[in-house]
Amino acid sequence: MNVGLDTRLVPQGSWWPHAPENPVFQRLATDTRQIFRPGDTLFFCLRGTRHDGHSFIREAFQQGIRHIVTDHLPDFREDGLFYWIVPDTLAALQHLAGAYRKSLPAPVTAITGSNGKTMVKEWLYTLLREDFRVFRSPKSYNSQVGVALSLAMAGPADEIALLEAGISLPGEMARLEAMLLPDNGILTSLGSAHDEGFPDRKSKLKEKLTLFRSCAWYVAPAGIRRVHRELFDALPGKCLTWAEEGEADLVVQEVRETENGQRIRYRFSEGEGEYFLPHGGIIARRNSLTCLLYALHLGIDRDALHKRMARLPSLTMRLETREGWQQNLIISDHYNADLDALGLALDYYRQRKGQRAGWLILSDLDQSGLSDEEVADHLAQMLQPF
C-alpha cells in the first residue's frame, strides 16, 4: 500500500467546494477505462491535441470517482464531488508524482534510450527479483504522463525501482528528471527515433543525458561515450560502459551463435565469465550486456546471473518469430518503426532465413527527421544486399 499521494505538497491549486477531509490518495488516473478502486483515486483531466479529459468528468463520476483535477470549475456539479482546480493539470500531476517520489526509500534507476528501454527493464526485473523486491513501470509507461503514473504505483516496501523515461522534444527530459530524481541510470542506445524533434543527434543525446544529472553511476554503451565523451564528462556520476570491442568496463571476448541463442564470453573487473542468451541477434545481445553490467555492478553473484540470463524471456512486439505455413518464417517487429530498428531487423532476418526467399512489408517509418526521398534512398541502400 502506498504511503499516499498528498495534494497538499503541490503549491498551486484550490479545492471546490472545499478541501476534502483527507486530501491524500493511493492511486492516480487519467483514463476512465483504467479506473480501479475509485474511492481512493484522484482523476486528472488532461488536455491533448486530440482529446480533453474534461469531457469525461460525468463518466468518471458514474464510475465512482469523487475527486477530480481540472483547470477550471466545470458545469457538472454533484453532491460529494470535489474539484481540485489548478492552472495546469499535467504540471499538477507531475508535481504530485515528484513529491511522492521523495518519500520512496528505494533507489530509482531511470532507463532511457532510442530503443531497448522496455526490454532492458523487463530483463533486469528477471535478473534482480530473486535478490530484491523490484518495482518496474508497467508496459512502456515512459512519457510525461506515463512516468508520473508509474511513480505513483511504487511503494515503500520496494527495494529497487526501474522506470523508463522517453522523450521526443527538447525540454521534456528536464521534467522527467525532476520527477524521477534517479539514483542511477541506464542509456540503452542512440538511434534515429525522434530525430525530427532535435537539431541533430548530439543535441538529442545531450537532452537524454539530462536524466543522469543526479545519478551516482549509470550504464552506457562505450561506443556512444567514445564519440560524445565531452557530454558524458560533464556529468558528475560514474559512467560504466560495455563494448563488443575496444576498452570498457565490460568487454565481449567471444560470441558463439547456436540454434536457440548465443553464448557470450566476456571480461569484467579482471575476471572472465560466460553466459548463454536464449535469443539470437545483435539487439538481444546488446541489451543483455547492458543488463549484465548493471547487475554485476550492483553486486549480484556472477554464477547466479549466468543461470538467470539463460531464462530471459522474449518480449511481445519486439522481433517476434513465428513459423508459418509451408515452412515460412514470419519475423514481426511492431515495437519500433524507424530506420535503425529496420536495420537491426534485417540483420536478424539475414541470420535466420537460411535458403528461404523473403518479403518485406513496411508501415510508415515515423520520426526519422528525413524527407520521403531521403527515406527511400536509405531503404534502397539497406535492401540492396537482399
Gist of the model:
The protein is of the alpha/beta class. The chain contains twelve helices and 18 strands.
Descriptive notes:
The radius of gyration is 23 Å and the shape is globular. Strand 15 and strand 16 form a beta hairpin. The chain has a nine-stranded mixed beta sheet with strand order 9-10-8-11-12-13-14-15-16, with helices on both faces. It has helices at 57-62, 89-101, 117-128, 144-153, 172-180, 201-209, 222-227, 229-233, 282-298, 302-309, 339-352, 372-383; strands at residues 5-6, 14-16, 24-25, 27-29, 41-44, 67-70, 82-85, 108-112, 134-136, 160-164, 184-187, 217-221, 238-243, 250-258, 261-268, 271-277, 320-323, 329-332. 31% of the residues lie in helices and 21% in strands. The mean pLDDT is 90. The protein is an alpha/beta fold. The protein contains twelve helices and 18 strands. The longest helix has 17 residues, at 282-298.
